[in-house]
C-alpha cells in the first residue's frame, strides 16, 4: 500500500457552501501554444467560434465579443501568449458544439470515440470506473463541489456508462470530511445499485488518480479514473449540449475573509475576479496557485484562470526559512509516494530518469527538517 | 514565479537538537548526583568538588562556542556535540588539559572537514583523541568512592548507574529513557541505534553460550557502549541516508564493537568502531543508491 500522510491544517479556514459567480468578465484571454490562429484582431466572435487549431483540437471562444490583441499572460503552467477578447455581454452562440447525443440509444463504439476525441478518455477494456471527487489541496473543495452541485446528473450519467460499457463496478471516492456530499449521495444511491460509495480518510494525494488506484489496490489496466471536473464537462456536453466555457475554482486561505467556490468564465483575469469578489483580511498576503506543498507563488497581475487552475490560496506572508545542511534522516525517501530518492536529484542521469515519474507533490520538501526545497533541484539547480 | 513548500511539517532540525538536549538532561543530573552530591554526602569530597561533574559539560559548551565563532559556523550543533562528548569523559580527566585538548581537536577536525570532504563521525574521533587528556592523570573511570570500594552494589544498582564509567554513561536505565525521549522525534535515526544494539548484544550472547563463559556477561550492561550508540552514532550529519543502509551501518558498528570488547576488553571500543565504520558511509550510500540509479 502507498504510504500517505494527513497534512496538518488550520481548522478555522472553511470554504463557504455558497457558490459565487464570475461569468461576465469585461475581458478574457485565450492562451495558445503552437496553435494556428483562425481569427484576426478586431474580429467579432461568438461563444463557440473557433479561435485556434492545434494538431488534436480546436480552441473556441468562451464569450461573445471582439478580439483585441495578442499578448503575454501568466498561467499556472507558466507564461503563454493569449488572445484578448473584449466581452460584449450578448452571449451569442455561434455553433452548436456537437450533434445532440442521447445516451439511451447511442452505441458503445460511438460513445467510446466521442469520449476519446473530446476528453482523451479511453474506455476500451475497462471494467471499473472510478469517480475521484477528492481535492489534494487541503483548503480547496473544487472537486467535491463539482459533485455537490451536479450529483443527480452525475449519478444518472454514470449509471448510463455502466450499462453502455458493461462495467463491473462504478466507485465514487470521497474524503471523510466531505460530509455534505456523503449525505446527498447516501440519499440517492439506493436508486443506483451499480454505484458504490467509498469514503476515504483525509490523506494527501488521494486526489491524484494514480495514487488513488494504488490506495484502492485496483489495477490501472482495467480501470479508469475520472475527476469530477472532467465528468462535469462530459455532463455539459452530453446532457446539456453546452460548450465548456466556465469552471469552478476555490479561492481560500488564511489571508481572506470569505473563502469561496467561484464559478468563473475560463480565461478571466484573476486580479479582476479577486478585486470584485474577495475581501482580504490583511494586505500583506501571497497568492499561491495550486496547493501549499507544490503550488506556485504568483503575481496576480496578468494571471488568468485557465483550465488547469483549480484553486488559489491567499495566505498571510511567512518569514522565509533558509535551507540548512541535510541531516541524512532519510525521511524524504520514506515519504515519497513514487519511491524517488530526492537526495540523488543532483545526478543529471537520475533527474532525467525520474522527471516524469515525480508527482511534484512537494512531500519531500514538506517533511525535510532542513527545509530543502527539492523542487528547485528538479527544475535545474545542481547540488542537493 | 517560484515553487514553494509553504506548508511544512511541524518539526525540523532545531526540534531534533532540542530533543537531544532534553534527552541529555537526566544524564547530566545523575552525573551531578553520582559524582558530586552523593560523594559529598558521604564525606568523600569537599564542597568545591561537588561541581566538578558539571565543570566538564560547561567548559565543553564554552569551547564549542569559541570554535564555532572562529570557524563562523552555527553554534547550536557544535555545542550539542561538545555536551555529548563531555558526558563520556572520566571524572579523573585533567581539568586544565581537557579544554585545551578539546579546543585543539575541535579546531583540527573543523579544519580537516573544510579540506577533506570525506564523511566520518567527528564525535567518535574527538572522543578517541580525548583519551590523551585522561592519560595525563591516571587512566581510570573510577570515582573516589569506587576507588575506595566503599559501597557494595547489586545488579539493579549497576543497571541504575552506580558503577564506574564516563560522567553520564553509567546508567543504562537513564540511557534507555533518553532513547525513548529521542524516539518520539521523527528525525532521530533510531534504526541505527536498534541495529547497533542488536549487532553488539547478539555476538556477546552467542559467545557466552558457546564458551560457557559468564564473566563477559557484564559487557551487556555496559552503559558506555549504549550511550555512544544512542548519542554519538546517530549524529546529525555523519550517517547513511537510507533506512536499509542505516540498519547495515548500525549492525556493523555493533558487531565491530563486540569483537573489540571480546578480544581486547577495551572500554572505548564503541568509539573506535563508530569511527572506523563511519569511514565507509560514502560506500554504504553508494550501494544503497545503486538500485535507484539502475532502475
Description:
- The complex is a heterodimer of chains A (384) and B (295).
- Chain A is built from ten helices and 17 strands.
- The model of chain A has no long low-confidence stretch (mean pLDDT 89).
- By secondary structure, chain A is α/β, with parallel strands linked by helices.
- Chain A has a six-stranded mixed sheet with strand order 1-14-13-17-15-16, with helices on one face. Chain A has a four-stranded antiparallel sheet with strand order 2-8-7-4, with no helix packed on it.
- In chain A, 40% of the residues are buried.
- In chain A, helix 2 links the parallel strand 9 (128-132) and strand 10 (169-175).
- Chain B is 66% helix and 1% strand.
- The A-B interface holds A 7-8, 74, 78, 138, 286, 288, 292-299, 313, 315, 318, 321, 324-331, 333-334, 340-341, 343-344, 347, 349-350, 353, 362, 365-367, 369-371, 373, 375-376, 379 and B 1-13, 15-16, 186-187, 189, 236-243, 246, 289, 292-293, 295.
- Strand 16 of chain A pairs antiparallel with strand 1 of chain B, so a sheet runs across the interface.
Descriptive keywords:
heterodimer, A: 384 residues, alpha/beta, Rossmann fold, 3 domains, 4-stranded antiparallel sheet, 10 helices, 17 strands, B: 295 residues, mainly alpha, 14 helices
